[in-house]
Structures are given as structure tokens and as C-alpha cells.
Amino acid sequence: MVNDNDEGAYLRVRDLTKKFGEFTALRNVSLDVREGEFVCFLGPSGCGKTTLLRAIAGLDIQTSGTVEQAGRDISALPPQNRDFGIVFQSYALFPNLTVKRNVAYGLENRRMPRAEVAARVAELLDLVGLTAHGDKYPAQLSGGQQQRVALARALATSPGLLLLDEPLSALDAKVRVHLRHEIKELQDKIGVTTVMVTHDQEEALAMADRIVVMNHGVIEQIGTPEEIYAEPATPFVADFIGTTNFVDGEVRPGGRVAVAGVVIDFGSAVDGLAPGDKVTVCIRPEDVRVSDGGSGPGIAVTVTDVEFLGSFHRCHVEPVNGAGFGRGVDFMIDLSAGRARDLDIREGMSVTAALPPEFVRIYRPMGGV
Q: In 11-113, which residue ranges form alpha helices assigned H by DSSP?
């Protein structure tokens, strides 16, 4: 269980558990979302992120635990009595209604005067850049335009909370990148508290103020994109967010760790561990420092393969001494195109790979930090 414990939280989830028969989809989940914040629930399929969103919306009431919004306990309320707008992956637009009528649907159900409805619809269509498309039907719009209509409809009643359930996953890559910037800019402009579910790490890193990383029905870590990426709390987070090298090691006295036949001083990174402890050393490929010649402080390695990936080169390496990084470990080093050119990087050459302590995370093999 993770308790973020923000006293000023707009949305407060406490000890939420959701069971489907014998299967536990959520286990004692606790988190806080501040007013005006954009939070992403991120994780692989089946991790519980959509179940958590649906519990907040009242679409799947939790088995136990509480949900509060703006200080009000909404744990047992049906969806229609909760203050939220929602956008689904499928858009769920009414095909027989025009864009204007789709956006107006919630307002008309509230029996607002026609003039007020028309003014609000015009305001929203302008906000999402669809003023010229108001009289079209959903089938006449592109996927990105349909998603903007769904967003405008969700915002029409000025909800206190906006819920987005994988809203971009049905779009092609270029549209997805463009629309995620639009959604974030719109959220910043209107200031609505937003919770979005996604399995796309790049999407979460680009859009969220904070990310809630989930796995097997529990929260692994809550933090800003920078914290999640640079300071992963568990091996799962380190592996799921970005690309990471995991290397077998053994703690030695004096803050040192034996890695690939070389003893490296990692200082405070090994605090709490005892000499002889088996550990997993974690470092991002871009954080490995490389010098040529295969000498100097670090691990002497041979480049076994070089992938050209546009702005950078990814080098796959093996220790020269044959000690290995661990069973099944593919150790990678990312070099900018300029650095790769300076080193004249190529298959078969030897270089020295240094693992700077400030970029290293050390975990116990079973997952504890």
C-alpha cells in the first residue's frame, strides 16, 4: 500500500480493495490527487489501473475502502451523483447526433436554457478547435477530431474531476503525440483536476504532473516523471519506465560492490546492505560513461553490436575478462551520435564502461531497495 498523505487533497482514495470473485484486482490502494493536478495511472495490462479509475467513477464499486472528492465521501454513490466527466478509449459518441448535439447532451439532460446550452457548446468547440465542424456527424470526423469532441462533451458540465481512460490508444502515433500536447495544454488552461489511465510510458512522462505506477493491483511508486525515471523505487519501476541495465553484484566492505569481476565503489548507494549480500545493480544506458582504450576506472568491455537509432547509438557490450554481467543480461550503452563519432564506435572494439554512483540504483534481488 502507498499512502501519499496530502492533507490538501482534492481526491482522496484510502485502502481501496476490489475483488472479482477470488481474484483481487486492487489491494489496499491509497493515494491523493491535488486540485488542478494531472495524474497518470501507468502500468501494464491487468495491473489494476482501469479498475481503480472505474472505482473512482462509481462504475465498479470497490469491495472495501473509501473515495472522497472535495471532502465529500462518494464511496457508495452511483456515477450520476458524482462530479466527473469521462472520456473513454472508444470515444462513445452518439453517431446519430451532430458534434454540437453530442457536446450539448449532458447540458440538455440538466434542462439548461437553450441559449445557455448554445453558448456553452460554442465556447467548448472553440476551446478544442472544432468550431467549423459543429454540424458534422462523428463519422465525418477523423479519430483525433472525434476524441476532441468526446473531451468537449466531458467538460461541458464543468466537472470538478476529468477522467481519461486510455483516450489516445486508438489513434495513430503522430496524431497521438499531437493530441497529448493539446490535452495537456487544455488541462493547464482550464485547471480541471485530471486522472488519466495509460499503458504508454512516454505518454505518462510527457503529460503528467505525477505518475502512479501500478503492478498486480498495488501501487509501486508515486512521483513526478523526473522522480519516477531517475529514482525508481523498485526494480519493476526501473524496468517498466524506460530502458535499464540490471547487473548481478555482491556487496563488499566499504561501500563497494563486485560487478562483472571488477570491484566498484558505490558509496552511499549500498547503505543498509551488508558485505556478502547479493544485489542487482541498475543503471540507465545513457548514464554509463565511456572512454576508449579499454583502460581506466570502470569495466573493460567489448562492443558486440551497435544499433543506429537516429540521434543516438545503442551499443551492446560484454566484459573483456569474461566474468559476465549476469545470466541473460544484455548490457547496453547509449551514446549520442556525436560521442559515438568521436569514439569511432564499432563492433569488436574495447572501451571502458564506468558506472557513476550518482546514477546507480542498487536493489536486493527479490525487489527491495
A: 49-57, 99-109
